[in-house]
Design brief:
Strand order of the largest sheet: 11-10-9-12-13-14-15-16
Strand content: 15-25%
Helix content: 25-40%
Radius of gyration: 21 Å
Distance between the termini: 39 Å
CATH architecture of the largest domain: 3-Layer(aba) Sandwich
Oligomer: single chain
CATH topology of the largest domain: Rossmann fold
CATH superfamily of the largest domain: NAD(P)-binding Rossmann-like Domain
Shape: globular
């Protein structure tokens, strides 16, 4: 991560720090990073992590996303000297995986809110319990001691619960929501918009997984897709074929938003770095290092389903011209008021992609102290404009959008309602707005959960 005292450039900008720059709460990038260094999280885990894949996944996801945003540190206390059960880190034990992902295995830090995973007794007044069941996941306030059954999730809902916790922790520290730490927050992925804390007898057990996908863009959203796919219980090697498309290289700034980025891969081509990560999980990969556009075409033996996670309007407008049978596109809000928002579109739908997106307008230079030339030594007017054009971002919003995208495939595989549009915010996960699509059989290939 960028040293808070170093000069900032568009490639080294911490995307969450930019929120404080754009709102005028910080007068420089250094001051904004310093604010994030005051934010932290303590995590307590119960003995469930010794035997539960889903509890381990909830912990590792929470560590992964919070260490990128809450720069004051993430500490974990509990039963960590146990074999790692999920292949999302190159480690033998759960404790090693926590350390590799940026957490500290120690007694929890005083003064930070607390997150509890599993059966844990906690007297803190501020914090959350991560909980899930089936297709539903989220957090409840510590003081209420309310939990779901925490089973039959197959990896999807624990990731959602971890993201809900990270979002609440950020809203609590930043003061952006008065109820953060004192409310429940979650979502049903089987029936978005329904109350996630109530049992839903219509939820099927997750037994089918997609076996071939084309990922367009390997930044924040593309890496979110991969983290979730790596967490799903594929039976063995080569159960999933992935076309990985991205022409860009990993930058320092990506570490603040993208869940598979670490300092050791900065400067490497994104497609190659993500292929290496995917192949270690046993997935088959095919690389495409060209930009996606009107010239892009799916071959007869390529995956028929595309997951799109790019913020380029021209690329998005070209999605339906490539010959895919199904496209799931997720997007994020970008400004200081909308970076908490996420959306999903699927194609074919009632509207064509080329009608939804056109060339983006240039960003206006924010009228805040952080963008005055004296605060940005080494950048001319063009460089400052480029810096201002970078989006505010937090990793847990991208991961929530990724969960929504992958759940769209799984819901269709299990005969559930298909969505054409979904739109929501971490400020109120339960209030997601949806438009359903005409039901279609998912006919693009699947693998069975063991």
């Amino acid at each position: 991560m960028l040293d808070s005292g170093a000069s900032v450039t568009p490639d080294t900008l911490h995307r969450t720090a930019k929120y404080f720059m754009d709102t005028g709460r910080a007068t420089s990038h250094q001051e904004a990073v310093g604010m994030l260094r005051q934010y932290g999280l303590s995590i307590r885990v119960g003995d469930e992590v010794r035997t539960s894949r889903d509890h381990q996944l909830a912990l590792l996801t929470l560590v992964n996303v919070t260490r990128r945003t809450l720069l004051g540190g993430v500490t974990v206390e509990g039963s960590l000297d146990t074999p790692l059960m999920i292949p999302v880190a190159e480690a033998d034990t759960l404790g090693e995986a926590v350390s590799q992902l940026g957490g500290r295995c120690s007694e929890i830090s005083e003064g930070f809110p607390v997150a509890c995973i599993g059966t844990v007794t906690e007297n803190s007044k501020t914090g959350w319990r991560l909980t899930w069941s089936g297709w539903r996941g989220g957090v409840t306030p510590i003081r209420e001691e309310q939990r779901l059954e925490e089973r039959n999730a197959a990896g999807l809902a624990p990731v959602l619960a971890a993201c809900a916790c990270a979002a609440e922790a950020f809203l609590y520290h930043s003061g952006d929501h008065a109820l953060a730490g004192r409310r429940s927050s979650g979502m049903s992925l089987w029936q978005p918009g329904n109350d996630w804390l109530f049992d839903d007898p219509s939820e099927p057990k997750i037994e089918l997984l997609p076996n071939a996908l084309w990922l367009i863009g390997l930044g924040n959203l593309g890496q979110a897709y991969l983290w979730i796919l790596g967490a799903l219980p594929y039976r063995g090697a080569r159960e999933l074929t992935l076309v990985l498309q991205d022409h860009d290289r990993v930058a320092v700034a990506n570490d603040s938003t993208s869940v598979l980025t670490s300092p050791d891969i900065v400067g490497k081509k994104k497609a190659r770095a993500m292929a290496k990560w995917s192949e270690r999980r046993g997935f088959r990969t095919i690389l495409d290092e060209k930009p996606f556009g009107t010239w892009s075409r799916r071959g007869p033996h390529d995956p028929a389903v595309a997951l799109c996670g790019v913020d380029n309007a021209l690329a998005r407008a070209s999605l339906e011209q490539a010959g895919f049978g199904l496209i799931v596109e997720t997007g994020l809000g970008s400004g200081p008021q909308s970076f908490k928002n996420f959306s999903l579109h699927t194609f074919p739908g009632s509207l064509r992609a080329e009608k939804l997106w056109s060339a983006a307008n240039p960003a206006d230079l924010p009228d805040t102290p952080a963008y005055t030339p004296s605060r940005l030594p080494g950048l001319d007017r063009c460089g400052i404009t480029q810096l201002a054009s970078r989006t505010v971002g937090v990793p847990f919003v991208g991961l929530i959008a990724g969960v929504l995208g992958i759940s769209e495939l799984l819901r269709r595989l299990h005969g559930g309602v298909a969505l054409e549009l979904a739109s929501g915010s971490i400020s109120a996960l339960e209030d997601i707005e949806i438009i359903t699509a005409s039901g279609r059989v998912y006919e693009y290939g699947f693998s069975r959960v063991p």
